[in-house]
């Protein structure tokens, strides 16, 4: 179809203001004439996508004799003498051409079209499905109405929006860019797949509080708020772990939750202060079984989104999420990469010397923090394929069971994909006496200035004292799952990310 000349990449504020004034005047004219610029309902019979599916293979200059009534947003517009054209776009990005001719609608209706319709308006059209001389699937309208008058102009759809605009005005991103729409659909497909995989293993989906009197379940800095009703300080949750474990104590042997977490920390390409989190717990499971489950969850989600465990990222790179994933011991891999043996018995002074030598800074250094920071320095960037990094230091893992055969480490893994952490899994600590000792040690670290240290949670300990079965648990960021499948940064995977 013919299109209007390409407008400049960016409209100035003056131009936007002028266009807004013109469009507001059109709205006022419609209202003064008794025409609703925002009708509550329209006699729609079809969608653009359905019409394309039925008639997409029409030969040029063909007529169907089929009348349809549909609606879409005007994304291209060209007005000529006796025949006007518009491209209408549905929410899923599918498009169809609307043709408004003098012969079909009459002079008055055609004149009103030229005077009232702008780019960005939502339009209702009804008429015969045809194919234009150029083979463009079209509706030759015998009726049209404005379904919603756009007061502000659309950006230039021929050029890419700036990242700032894409993030701050995601609705414009969704209108203009197929990839933005794809990510939303991919996220929905991934979540549906996760739920289906859990259901196949007998898990129940539950919900736990987002407002908590004590923050816990992860080493993170919380957001703080105040409840007027209870006149008490509350925290936005950093993790659902301690409540999900209460559910296991109560006899819900397999539970999971997909919901929001909030951490008052930095934001970068892999971190967002507000993010979607999956956590799951299985009675009579351990971290090995949970690793198997996590691999299945991610591979099933990849198939649901991409049709295969080999996914194609936004930059065109193919990435293989299939097969069995390596399980790499943390201490052994660190020792090999650093060229010096590092064990759970290595002293803080020895580790600090190595950290200083390679330029790694660690605040409030403990053995575990030093080991983990050194491991990230020497090993993390080398991990491209999905890899379970196994067996972490005790002092950085206060909710995890000590290893059954290796002294000084706990049964914890972190899953790394493309060099970033995607998920974590534990053999859960269920001994309330040891858990209390771990909480006390965390409280000491907090007193020394560690703002991420956990609080002693008496209500959680009381639940454990009623008996929690041996269990495995895992947590995974949904945003990061989409990063692994699409190759995008975290802000692109969140529909409306938090920005300043």
TrEMBL record:
Residues annotated to bind Mg(2+) 1: 414, 421
What Gene Ontology terms for biological process does this UniProt record contain?
A: lysyl-tRNA aminoacylation
- Provide the E.C. number(s) assigned to this enzyme: 6.1.1.6
Cofactor requirement: Mg(2+)
The subcellular location is: Cytoplasm
Q: Which residues form the Aminoacyl-transfer RNA synthetases class-II family profile domain?
A: 192-497
**SUPFAM superfamilies documented for this protein:** Class II aaRS and biotin synthetases, Nucleic acid-binding proteins
Q: Which reaction does it catalyse?
A: tRNA(Lys) + L-lysine + ATP = L-lysyl-tRNA(Lys) + AMP + diphosphate
Q: How is the cofactor bound?
A: Binds 3 Mg(2+) ions per subunit.
At which positions is Mg(2+) 2 bound? 421
Mainly localized where? cytoplasm
Highest taxon above the source species: Bacteria
**Gene Ontology molecular function terms on file:** ATP binding; lysine-tRNA ligase activity; magnesium ion binding; tRNA binding
Which keywords has UniProt assigned to this entry? Answer: Aminoacyl-tRNA synthetase, ATP-binding, Cytoplasm, Ligase, Magnesium, Metal-binding, Nucleotide-binding, Protein biosynthesis
Q: Which family does it belong to?
A: Belongs to the class-II aminoacyl-tRNA synthetase family.
What subunit structure does UniProt give? Homodimer.
- HAMAP family, per the entry: Lys_tRNA_synth_class2
- Could you identify this protein by its name? Lysine--tRNA ligase
- Taxonomic placement: Bacteria, Bacillati, Actinomycetota, Actinomycetes, Micrococcales
What is the gene called? lysS
């Amino acid at each position: 179809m013919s299109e209007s000349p390409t407008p400049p990449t960016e409209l100035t504020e003056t131009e936007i203001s002028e266009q807004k004034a013109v469009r507001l005047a059109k709205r006022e004219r419609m209202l003064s004439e008794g025409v609703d610029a925002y009708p509550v309902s329209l006699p729609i019979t079809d969608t653009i996508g359905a019409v394309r599916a039925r008639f997409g293979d029409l030969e040029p200059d063909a007529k169907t004799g089929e009348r349809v009534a549909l609606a879409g947003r005007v994304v291209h517009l060209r007005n000529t003498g006796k025949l006007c054209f518009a491209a209408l776009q549905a929410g899923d990005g599918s498009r169809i051409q609307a043709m408004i001719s003098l012969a079909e609608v009459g002079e008055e209706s055609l004149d009103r079209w030229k005077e009232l319709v702008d780019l960005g308006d939502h339009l209702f059209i009804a008429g015969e499905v045809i194919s234009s001389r150029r083979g463009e699937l079209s509706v030759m309208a015998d009726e049209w109405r404005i379904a919603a008058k756009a007061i502000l102009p659309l950006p230039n759809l021929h050029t890419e929006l700036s990242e700032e605009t894409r993030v701050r005005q995601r609705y414009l991103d969704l209108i203009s860019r197929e990839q933005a729409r794809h990510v939303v659909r991919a996220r929905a497909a991934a979540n549906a797949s996760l739920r289906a995989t859990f259901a196949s293993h007998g898990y129940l989906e539950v919900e736990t509080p987002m407002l908590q009197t004590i923050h816990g379940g992860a080493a993170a800095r919380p957001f703080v708020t105040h409840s007027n009703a209870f006149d008490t300080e509350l925290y936005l949750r950093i993790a659902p772990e301690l409540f999900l474990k209460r559910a296991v104590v109560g006899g819900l042997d397999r539970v999971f939750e997909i919901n929001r977490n909030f951490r008052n920390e930095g934001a970068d390409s892999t971190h967002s202060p507000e993010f979607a989190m999956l956590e799951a717990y299985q009675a009579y499971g351990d971290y090995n079984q949970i690793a198997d489950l996590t691999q299945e969850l991610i591979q099933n989600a990849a198939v649901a989104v991409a049709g295969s465990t080999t996914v194609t990222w936004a930059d065109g790179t193919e990435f293989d999420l299939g097969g069995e994933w390596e399980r790499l011991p943390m201490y052994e891999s660190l020792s090999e990469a650093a060229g010096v043996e590092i064990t759970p018995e290595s002293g803080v002074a020895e580790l600090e010397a190595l950290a200083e030598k390679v330029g790694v800074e660690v605040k409030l250094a403990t053995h575990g923090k030093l080991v983990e920071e050194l491991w990230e320095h020497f090993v993390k960037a080398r991990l491209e394929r999905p890899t379970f990094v196994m067996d972490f230091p005790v002092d950085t893992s206060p909710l995890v069971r000590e290893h059954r055969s290796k002294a000084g480490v706990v049964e914890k893994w972190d899953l790394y994909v493309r060099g970033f952490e995607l998920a974590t899994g534990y053999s859960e600590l269920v001994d309330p006496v040891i858990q209390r000792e771990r909480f006390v040690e965390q409280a000491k670290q907090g007193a020394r200035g560690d703002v991420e240290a956990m609080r002693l949670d008496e209500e959680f300990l009381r639940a454990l004292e009623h008996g929690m079965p041996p269990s495995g648990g895992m947590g995974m960021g949904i945003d990061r799952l989409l990063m692994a499948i699409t190759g995008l940064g975290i802000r692109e995977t969140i529909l409306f990310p938090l920005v300043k």
